[in-house]
Amino acid sequence: MKNNIKVERAKLNITQSDLAHAIGVSKQTIHSIESGRYVPSSVIALKIARYFNTTVEQVFELEEGD
Q1: Which residues on neighbouring strands pair with residue 60, listed in sequence order?
Q2: What is the pTM assigned to this prediction?
Q3: Is 65 a residue whose pLDDT tops 90?
Q4: N or C: at which end does the chain have fewer Cβ atoms within 10 angstroms?
Q5: In angstroms, rounded to a whole number, what is the distance separating the alpha carbons of residues 47 and 63?
């Protein structure tokens, strides 16, 4: 699963720690999601999208084989 979290964070000039704190997860969780090693739960995906004031589809994208 691809994601645009890093791009969205850059737009707001926030760190992984800032995002993690805002949605109630660890910095390591955000790092793992950004690097594609961890697929977030639907609740975490929704919280991330809400934080960026966008849709889940704008943040996350299924890849071939997902």
Answers
A1: 3
A2: 0.94
A3: no
A4: C
A5: 21
